[in-house]
Amino acid sequence: MPLSHSVVLRLAATAIATTSVGFGVNAILRPDHALTFFEFHPPTSVLDKQMVDSLMAIYGVRDIFMGAAIYAASYFGTRSTLGWILIAASGVAFADGFVCWTHGQGHWNHWGYAPMIAVAGSLLLGVFDRL
């Protein structure tokens, strides 16, 4: 059986989706805590805090959407669809890390897992089936 057909990969994708949904819910319900993953401190002014909380809600909805897309592809889609969605999700994690890197902190909180998601996506696409 080719590696891309492994049930473990779909289970890994489900774990990634669950993590993404968890981060999203956390960002919506606890924006100050979610900022710790970026190593940013909550703003002190009321107007700035309202803006950051709103942006964290947007970030949370984005993460929940990514998790839902991964769930849908895992349960109803093809392996290649799931693989490409995982690669796209790894790009989001890389971009989040890049933004943090431009601010001098927090980038490894994102760059640490981006390659794992990309590898899972690549495995689903069959990149390593011929090895």
UniProtKB/TrEMBL annotation:
Transmembrane segments: 7-29, 56-76, 83-104, 110-128
UniProt signal peptide: 1-17
Classification via InterPro entries: DUF4267
Keyword annotations from UniProtKB, A to Z: Membrane, Signal, Transmembrane, Transmembrane helix
Protein name (database record): Integral membrane protein
Top-rank taxon: Eukaryota
